[in-house]
Amino acid sequence: MEKYRNDTAKKRFLRIAQIAPLYESLPPKLYGGTERIVHYLTEELVRQGHDVTLFASGDSITEAKLIACVDEGLRLKQNCIDPLTYHIIQMQKLSTQVHEFDILHFHTDYLHFPFSNMLEIPSVTTLHGRLDIPELQDIYHTFPYQNLISISENQRLPIPQGNFVKTVYHGLPENLHQQGDGKGDYLAFLGRISPEKGIERAVEIALATNTKLKIAAKIDKTDSTYYEKYVKSLLDHPLIEYIGEINEQQKTEFLGKAKGLLFPINWPEPFGLVMIEAMACGTPVIAFHNGSVPEIMENNVTGFVVNSVKEAVDAVSRLAYLSRKKIRGVFEQRFTAARMAENYVDVYHFLLNNTLKNVPRSTIPILNKPA
């Protein structure tokens, strides 16, 4: 590990453009996993000495140079009917300054592909969402030379034709959260209330183990019907407490005091940021075997990977036998913002060293295993 860091330190400092989605500020005021990661990456790159420019909403807080593409994050902006408008403005602002950068790092899904496809300057796109959507097949067949970063190996399976350069796992600032004692005598659920996140399973597990469940989650407008029809009635139980959305500072206590985090997903989760947030607090996770879970979790170390509600119920009784100190140690070894940034800097230099003018990027070799 020390050699890796020393080798990275020898590389020259770069002029980097980070292009963020505009739905939330950086950092987001409440929910917003993608924007949170882009924020941590941006700040760590600045800390490491790189010249970073951030294209984001104007209410973002950053040590980088901020180019505001809209006055505030679009999710909380009143009367915003067409959010795509501001993303097009963002591309135009970037186009006027593109010559000022060594590399462009996009976090805007495929929106920029027609623009970045015409550039000679290297660019890379981190894909933060699910890729098992039929229409994406046509996108990645149409743009075969876009350099892509996956956030888990599992995430890339639906689009084998994608030009993936590397998998880079998310990371959090090492001192963002502290190890908790888990003496709150409750299970935690953190994230969104939506069908794929498995809130109904979480309630079922809590009731089956006679354990209090605290739910800190947002309800998107798109999930309001699901909430009203299937979830609202489940919250009317003395063991179930719905808290609502919480901010980053509140997570330390919420997760740190929990005896365990329930992550009962029923979809191919691309990463699952909440798992490493729990690890940072030393809190074990009970996660369903789906998507990225087997890559992020160390079964019987950072928690338990299960395949059914019954297995999850059995796992609750074993949470106390796991070492919270060891869980925190896994976080420090694998999932810090510093490690994430170093891995991305490796990607930047790799692309700068291998991208030649007028050479299709499909001829560029790929980096190997995820880091």
What's the alpha carbon Rg, rounded to whole Å?
21 Å
> Regions with pLDDT < 50 over 5+ consecutive residues?
1-9, 356-365
Instruction: Please name the CATH topology of the largest domain.
Output: Rossmann fold
Order of helices and strands: HEHEEHEHEHEEEHEHEHEHEHEHHH
Multimeric status of the protein = single chain
Mean pLDDT: 92
CATH C-level class of the largest domain: Alpha Beta
CATH superfamily of the largest domain: Glycogen Phosphorylase B
What's the number of helices? Answer: 13
Q: How would you write the strand order of the largest sheet?
A: 3-2-1-4-5-6-7
For the biggest sheet, the summary is:
7 strands, parallel
Count every beta strand, where a strand is a DSSP E run of 2 or more residues.
Answer: 13
Distance between the termini: 12 Å
Structural class assignment: alpha/beta
Give a summary of the structure in a few sentences.
This protein has 371 residues and is an alpha/beta fold. It has 13 helices and 13 strands.
Describe the structure.
- The protein is of the alpha/beta class.
- The chain has two domains: 2-171 and 337-363, Rossmann fold (3-Layer(aba) Sandwich); 186-334, Rossmann fold (3-Layer(aba) Sandwich).
- Helices cover 33% and strands 16% of the residues.
- It is built from 13 helices and 13 strands.
- It has helices spanning 2-9, 33-47, 84-95, 113-116, 136-142, 199-208, 224-231, 248-256, 273-280, 293-296, 309-316, 324-334, 337-354, and strands spanning 15-19, 51-56, 65-68, 103-106, 123-126, 148-150, 164-167, 186-192, 212-218, 240-242, 260-263, 285-288, 303-306.
- Helix 2 packs across helix 13 (337-354) and helix 6 packs across helix 11 (309-316).
- The protein is globular and about 60 Å long.
